């Protein structure tokens, strides 16, 4: 009889445990495959796990050039503003066409997240500092050269430091995206900045301005 009561109690707990497990799965982003070209290991402590999942979905698709997935994550009213490229509130279709042309110029794209702030709440936005790296699959055309390091040519590996701001809907779709970036410089490092070791306007900062 004692054994029967124990089994009965355990069975009654199963629905509760199942619901709790499902809730954890929904709220915690699944780990990316090791082969993912998107590395978010440095932002894992962000408390908004839904935001982490949204960011992962998008930047993993971006780094893989998964056009279908990217379009799926864009709300119908999506617009892109890319200050570096001089693009202001480009509608979804126009930006996707522009992006497709850029993707034809590069290969081996990867994204490394450095810092992440913000919220996944509807109408809220996230701000991510990231480094984008890629190889030039061909010599850049004249229109693209001004946004690349001087003398860039086919086979060169280029890295850029980017600020990405994204506005989200409740179901994880993007309504607006804002980007600003520039090529990295010789003294550039992704090591965390330690203000005790060097002031903000230290030699590394000035070296970046001189490039």
Automatic annotation (TrEMBL):
Keywords: Signal. Residues 1-22 form the signal peptide. The keyword Signal applies. InterPro entries: NTF2-like_dom_sf. This is SnoaL-like domain-containing protein. It comes from Endocarpon pusillum.
């Amino acid at each position: 009889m004692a054994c029967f009561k124990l089994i009965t109690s355990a069975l009654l707990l199963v629905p509760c445990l199942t619901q709790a497990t499902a809730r954890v799965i929904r709220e915690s982003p699944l780990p990316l495959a090791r082969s993912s070209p998107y590395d978010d290991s440095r932002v894992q402590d962000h408390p908004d796990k839904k935001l982490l999942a949204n960011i992962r979905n998008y930047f993993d698709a971006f780094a893989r050039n998964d056009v279908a997935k990217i379009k799926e994550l864009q709300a119908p009213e999506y617009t892109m503003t890319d200050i570096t490229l001089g693009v202001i509130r480009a509608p979804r279709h126009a930006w996707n066409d522009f992006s497709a042309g850029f993707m034809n110029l590069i290969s081996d794209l990867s994204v490394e997240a450095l810092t992440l702030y913000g919220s996944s709440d509807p109408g809220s936005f996230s701000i991510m500092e990231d480094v984008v790296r890629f190889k030039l699959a061909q010599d850049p055309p004249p229109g693209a050269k001004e946004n690349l390091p001087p003398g860039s040519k086919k086979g060169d590996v280029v890295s850029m430091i980017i600020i990405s701001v994204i506005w989200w809907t409740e179901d994880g779709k993007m309504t607006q995206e804002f980007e600003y970036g520039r090529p990295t410089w010789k003294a550039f490092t992704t090591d965390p900045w330690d203000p005790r070791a060097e002031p903000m306007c230290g030699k590394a900062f000035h070296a970046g301005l001189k490039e």
